[in-house]
């Protein structure tokens, strides 16, 4: 029984072993399969993750490569006749947009115009970085002895490229494949070196908003159409001439410009372009009060003046000026006429061409007159023979190095400029290099020095050639 039991037991045990063997094998097999499965699943998972990552890298790379790139851009805004102290003088006119622009950007004590402090010579100096004797636009009106012709705006001569000796910034840009869009800048409608701005919006007396909307139309879509832009506002100058620089009309004109600056900035901000755009707001000259009791009529002293000399400044628009350009019909009369004028020198200065102050930078050009009569600040010159009444209460043109009322402004705001930075004054021939630097284009030879304006820029901006 015992044996039986034992046998039973043995048998049972053996049977049990036999019966359990497949189970153990099965268990053994199942254990090996599970590890293999786990490794396979893990490998599969890793491959899937790597594949997803790889695809993601490819997709993001393609998106990045296809995404339009926006390079640095510059907008020059000229507010004609914006005198350096107008913001203080007209602070009650709520010029909030200009003040915010200045607070968050860079400003200079004043922008020094070149001589004469007139619109055309200064817009050309800002655009070229050259003094008048180097860019050739010596005044709004000038005579050329070789051409035997007189330049004056709104005449066919203004559109003749032969008068323009300098290279404006838009020509420098276009030559280096940087597209420009220019509104009403002096010379921008003339083919200079065979080049015109790609986009042009000629001067017209249309409302300012139409000009701003033209500019904004170039900022539609993902990438703006140009990298160099200009915009021009004329009413601050117009009202300064008509009503005088202390008039409320000038304050209202400034307020209207301020509204336009606000509209422009808000729209560009909504379209996310301000991070790429440096905006420079500047003026060509200032404005001073004039009156009938401060006019010198040269033919009161020299009655036959018109008989012996060509007087350039005649006609309704230039019957009264800060200077008179005199070229005697007979060269032998130059010295005697000079001495005659010198004898009556009062509230004006008389210069022979060779003695004109060097810092005027006009005498080394053939368009400089033989004799220059220059009224002292606040005084005007004319001839009774012109027979024109004085119809303005503001004027400009005097030497801005001695007359603070002739000085302009420069405010700058954008990624390249320091924030909340106030600088001393700079000359307007420095602006050309500044714009070339921001656009990363090579400047043509000019009278500016980049080191004089580099301090206006953020320090991480590198120095260009
Ligand atoms: Zn002007």
Characterise the protein shown here.
Helices cover about 35% and strands about 15% of the residues. It has about 475 residues and is an alpha/beta fold. The chain has 3 domains: about 5-65; about 75-130 and about 165-290 and about 400-455, 3-Layer(aba) Sandwich (Alkaline Phosphatase, subunit A); about 290-390, Gyrase A, domain 2 (2-Layer Sandwich), CATH 3.30.1360. Strands 7-6-8-1-9-18-2-19 form an 8-stranded mixed beta sheet, sandwiched between helices. Helix 7 runs parallel beside helix 9 and helix 8 (about 235-245) runs antiparallel to helix 9. Bound molecules: zinc ion. Zinc ion binds near residues 80, 81 and 284. Zinc ion binds near residues 80 and 81.
Write the layout of secondary structure elements.
Elements: H1 2-66, E1 73-79, H2 86-89, H3 96-103, E2 106-108, E3 111-112, H4 119-128, H5 132-135, E4 141-144, E5 149-152, H6 169-175, E6 180-183, E7 199-201, H7 208-217, E8 228-233, H8 235-243, H9 248-270, E9 277-282, E10 288-289, E11 295-297, H10 305-308, E12 309-311, E13 323-328, H11 334-343, E14 348-352, E15 371-375, E16 380-382, E17 394-395, E18 410-413, E19 421-423, E20 426-427, H12 431-439
Parallel strand pairs: 1-8, 1-9, 2-19, 3-20, 6-7, 6-8, 11-16
Antiparallel strand pairs: 2-18, 4-5, 9-18, 10-17, 12-13, 13-15, 14-15
Helix pairs in contact: 7-9, 8-9
Bound molecules: zinc ion.
